[in-house]
Write a structure and sequence with these properties.
single chain; alpha/beta; Rossmann fold; 2 domains; 4-stranded parallel β-sheet; 10 strands; globular; binds pyridoxal-5'-phosphate; lyase; L-serine ammonia-lyase activity; TrpB-like_PALP_sf; threonine ammonia-lyase
Length: 329
């Protein structure tokens, strides 16, 4: 059954988020990719969301959500479950505000991410096989210790925070025709889609996920949130369910994302290699899915249009990066 929104997220919320986070989050550059534009026959720009302090755009939503807490809530601290980047963002945002953070993660999250979270002074709670187990642990901590849960995607402040990316894109490229981003829980594309569709409904929004374990893709197909099993993937930041009581992102993605596509591991590798070769940047698999989809013609862009690909994160260890790209450089 379709959940009814108990709160509608508006364009005004995204503008408020932009103002709220501006003390901590700097605007990221929009880079024209000459090489990719020539290859695709359309203008392609890269939104550099991998250069945030935490290594991913998730800082935007986390900072916005933590700023909204009451003094009482801040005193008890925050918790979250995450495949890594959201946990890292919450840890860093909490640190900047001087509050306690406990991050619950499943045991499949890479070691490098554990260390990064600990390095920020957050407490780490390693629990279970998947994001759903880690999520359960968060609910327990909420009850036991009065921590406030900062969810990774299905929350108005998080969605509004991620939407600020779209405001920046419109500022730099007001005649944008399409935006392409990684799709997991859908916080990113709910926020970006909300802004783009309320600006001009003909701006296209594309979501890209990995072939195996694409929870949102399968849920959209089924018409309701479904559970999928998790598999090893280079796009590990796109793993995780969307929650069977999803309140916002399922219906927002359904409404705002024009097309949702899947890419395989080789396509992700090509995307990572391309960004390394042509732009000299190291990005994680989840951040390269859109580039891979363009290179392999999984997304076809109309001639002479202006298109933005969100380069969402850089949390990958260098050995995995090297192994991923070596066949394609
Ligand atoms: C979280 C994440 C995504 C997907 O964002 P959702 O809001 O979960 O859809 C994409 N790329 C990276 C690097 C991420 O960390």
């Amino acid at each position: 059954m379709q959940q009814v929104h108990n709160q509608t997220i508006t364009l005004q919320d995204v503008w408020k988020a932009k103002s709220t986070i501006s003390a901590i989050i700097h605007k990221t550059p929009l880079i024209y990719s000459k090489a990719l534009s020539e290859k695709a026959g359309a203008e392609i720009y890269l939104k550099y969301e991998h250069i945030h302090d935490s290594g991913a755009f998730k800082m935007r939503g986390a900072v916005n959500a933590i700023y909204q807490l009451t003094e009482e809530q801040k005193k008890h601290g925050v918790t979250t479950f995450s495949t890594g980047n959201h946990g890292f963002a919450v840890a860093l945002a909490a640190k900047k505000l001087g509050i306690r953070a406990v991050i619950c993660v499943s045991k499949h999250v890479p070691q490098a991410k554990f260390e990064k979270i600990k390095g920020l002074g957050a407490e780490l709670e390693i629990y279970g096989d998947g994001q759903d187990d880690a999520e359960q642990r968060c609910y327990e901590l909420q009850k036991e210790q009065g921590l406030t849960l900062i969810p990774p995607f299905d929350h108005p402040s998080v969605i509004s925070g991620q939407g600020t990316i779209a405001l920046e894109i419109l500022e730099d490229l007001p005649s944008v025709h399409s935006v392409i981003g990684g799709l997991s829980g859908g916080g990113l594309l709910s926020g970006v889609g909300l802004v783009m569709k309320n600006t001009n409904p003909s701006i296209q929004v594309f979501g890209v996920s990995m072939e195996k374990g694409a929870a949102m893709y399968e849920s959209l197909k089924a018409g309701k949130p479904v559970v999928v099993s998790e598999h090893e993937t280079l796009a590990d930041s796109l793993l995780g369910g969307i929650g069977d009581e999803n309140k916002y992102t399922f219906s927002m993605v359904n409404q705002y994302v024009d097309q949702s596509v899947l890419v395989n591991e080789e396509t992700i590798k090509k995307g990572m290699a391309y960004l390394y070769k042509e732009h000299k940047i190291v990005v994680e698999g989840a951040a390269a899915v859109g580039i891979g989809a363009i290179i392999d013609n999984i997304i076809s862009l109309k001639e002479n249009t202006k298109n933005v690909v969100i380069i969402s994160g850089n949390n990958v260890d260098l050995t995995s990066h090297l192994n991923a790209i070596k066949a394609y450089i």
